[in-house]
Structure prediction request, 344 residues.
Amino acid sequence: MAHPKAKRWGRYVDRRNWRKYNERLVKRGEMYLSLDFLKTWAKDLESLNNGKVGAPYEYPECLMTFLGFIHIMLGMDYRGLEGFVRGLRKFAPVAVPDYSTICRRVNALRLEIQETLLEHEDEDVVISLDASGLKVTNRGEWIRKKWRVHRGWIKVHLAVDKGEKQCVAIDVTDESVGDQNEFSPLVREAGRNIRAKGGRVVQVNADGIYDVRDNFNSLDEMGITPAIKIRENASERARGCPLRKKHAREYRRLGYRKWRDKYRYGYRWCAEGNLSAVKRLTGEYVVATKKTNMYKEVIMKFQCYNSTIKYDKTAQPPWATKDAKRRNGGKITSENYATQQVQL
Prediction:
């Protein structure tokens, strides 16, 4: 007798090229030793100090981006990062910042999601929305459970594109903010970021928590197709939202299975997969203690994961992005980046 899951989903056929996939994951390890910031050190410092009042910066942004990536992806604390840079001095002439400077500068980094995204040249992009929580600390689980101490948690709201599985929009709030309230801001941000890369959002996948009339009105205004699962007790009356009325009636007429297949709603797993990957690689908690730094750390987790996906195709680490843009008139390609590799 067939297993219930096999009956529902069919027999799974593994078509992945494991040799290619394994090599891609192995090459990601080279990213941690990509010291391209050495070649751009002087120019980045000159740009950073241009017009600055007071004491000049001694360490460029590209170095701090590199250290921030190591901090997030390898879980190295700031004191450990100071020792890490000391170790680099054995191989390259690197100035060593103290750990308090690293902490302050990493938390002040101005990274943009757009800088971590791959190109979408004239593509129709489908995005999926989801939300999940991260713990504010990894200490004292037993004490909190025994004495019923509520520390709260951080909620991350995410939009992920179907093709590249990258985070194209993100917002971080506390646990009190409802998922449906972040729908329109996420979709608009995703639209801006994808347009900046040459694409356009044509469909949004989301579960029943986002089944709100204001969200359908926002999509109608932006000309985007909704693939939002309608709640079982949902009304089919318009009540100020004709698009939801049309969508609800189609959902009832087709039934869930046919509606799912028509809109390929199953690709909503892209958002869930991105959340899962980031938690597995960087942890389900934050190490920062200030609220603003906690939010910054969560955003950096997803930016760093985006950067690893981008590195798979372009061999371009995030700390080389700004310099490469300056050299090539705002456009970065894998070909011109390859000529900038630092030989140590």
User: Anything to note?
Assistant: The first strand starts at residue 124 and ends at 135. The mean pLDDT is 86. The CA atoms of residues 45 and 60 lie 5 Å apart.
